[in-house]
Each structure stands twice: as C-alpha cells, then as structure tokens.
C-alpha cells in the first residue's frame, strides 16, 4: 500500500522533540502543516506551496494544537496549561486561558491530543521524567473538564476510529496501546489491550486513523511508522532514517499524504533526526475535527 519510494524529508531543522502534526487546509495557498518542538519550545509551520518552514519561539513549550470550530485560532496544550491561541503573521499569541486540570503533580506536563467527532478534546499528561505513573487521560467538552483514566507513565497518541465508536490511547514506556469503547455522549468503557509492541519494535508514540480504520503508529526508538488493521493486526511498516519517530498526521489537498515528525534529542549521529517527513501512504485520512467551543453553552442550558 504505502509507496516507500515517495518518502522525503521536507524540513531538516532538527527539532529536539518534534510532535503534534496538524494539517490546516485553510492556511496558505495549498494548505500548511503545523507542528511543535516541545523541548525546543517553538511552533513550526510547513507551507506546502512554497516548501518553506517558519518557526517561532514560545515562552512556554507547546505540546499540541487543535483548531476551534468558530475559526478563531486553536486550543493549545502548553506544558502546564490550556489556552486559546491565535497564530498571526507575527507569530503565536495567547488570547485567554482555558480550564486546566489543577491537581497535576509538579513534575508532570501535558502530552498529545485529538478531537473526536463530537468536538470533544481528548488529551493526556505524563511525568516529564517518564518514571512515575502520574499521568492521566482527560476529556475537555467546551469548558467541562473530566479525568477519565489514570496511572500512565506517558499518556500518548489518542486516535479516534472513523466511526467515532473507538478511542485508542497508549502508555508509551509500557509498550501498550489501549482501546476503549467511546459512546456518543463521551463516556468510555471496555478498556482493553489492543496492541503490545515487542522489544525490537520500540515504543508506541503518536498515532492517527485513516479513512478505512487503519491505525498508523509512530515507533519511538523503533525508526518506523506502522499501520495496524482495526483488529490490531500489523498490516505494513515504513522504515525512516531517524530512530525517534514521534507522530503522524494526514494532509495534502486530498488527505492522501502522511506527514511524520521525529526527534533529534540524543541522536547527534542521525543526520535527519528531528526532521519532518512525508510519504504517499496509499490510503486517505480524515480531516481534523475542530474543537466545539460552544459545547459548554449546551451543558449550561440543559442543566
């Protein structure tokens, strides 16, 4: 399916910890891919038409961005807080804070997020040293915040199945991807082990579902991206010239390009580590669902 001959590095700027790729079709002439360098505390934008990548320094590291359904910028997960952020010509600007978990341990930070079909934002937290099981899985619905699961060392890579009925979430150091049943009202149930990585595969990091239900997973310290069928069976694997592969997202006008982020931290001998890659995966993805800003108004009116 995936055409490995189309793999190319479109930016070789060596992000210390590249993460959070997000396709924004409305930006630029042919769309732009936004991504972050968490350890480098910067926001980056790859413009498809020009092939250029711009970056801006941040006062606080950003871990992910999710578009808002009102078109007014993004909900962003910074290291220690959630904010409404706009990306303007001069760079990113924080507009206002958003409800944030107030009981996270001091050594924790936020890590990775996805929006489901109902416009709810799912995001995780982690021990920054990846040693303590102090991370959690949260759901943000408008301004209503819930903790749904806990005990993670590194909560990572939420992904939503195309039918919206399953949520995938991993604990990276434990090499496990969990699956949950996701109800229309946002309730989770039936947590189960969906995929377990072997020692030679590295660790499951960021992931995304394609339109056919396949789950594409980045292998941290595994140097590859793999597609798994909906039943958890390994379908195919794409090797990359960087061992610390962090996340992936579909983009391009037809959502038929897979963009892949990597990390250069502690990988001085790898010339393309920390680069942004793209490849033709042979399958289409799904557009990023925007976060429903007004969901909280419905909760207030119904309460």
What does this structure look like?
The structure is a single chain. Helices cover 3% and strands 53% of the residues. The chain is mainly β and 303 residues long. It has a 4-stranded antiparallel beta sheet with strand order 1-24-23-22, with no helix packed on it. A hairpin with a 2-residue loop joins strand 12 and strand 13 (144-152). The longest helix has 8 residues, at 295-302. The model is unreliable at 296-303 (pLDDT under 50).
A few lines on this structure:
The protein has 303 residues and is mainly beta. The protein has one helix spanning 295-302; strands at 3-11, 18-24, 32-37, 42-47, 53-57, 62-67, 74-78, 82-88, 91-98, 108-115, 121-127, 135-141, 144-152, 155-160, 166-171, 176-182, 188-196, 203-209, 215-220, 224-228, 234-239, 245-251, 257-262, 276-280. The strands form 6 sheets. A 4-stranded antiparallel β-sheet has the order 1-24-23-22, with no helix packed on it.
> Count of DSSP helices?
1
Characterize the largest beta sheet: strand count, sense, and whether it forms a barrel. Answer: 4 strands, antiparallel
Strand percentage, roughly? over 45%
Global mean pLDDT = 95
Write the H/E string, N to C: EEEEEEEEEEEEEEEEEEEEEEEEH
Uncertain segments are 296-303
What is the total tally of β strands? 24
Summarize the amount of helix as a percent range.
Answer: under 10%
Q: Alpha-carbon distance between the termini?
A: 49 Å
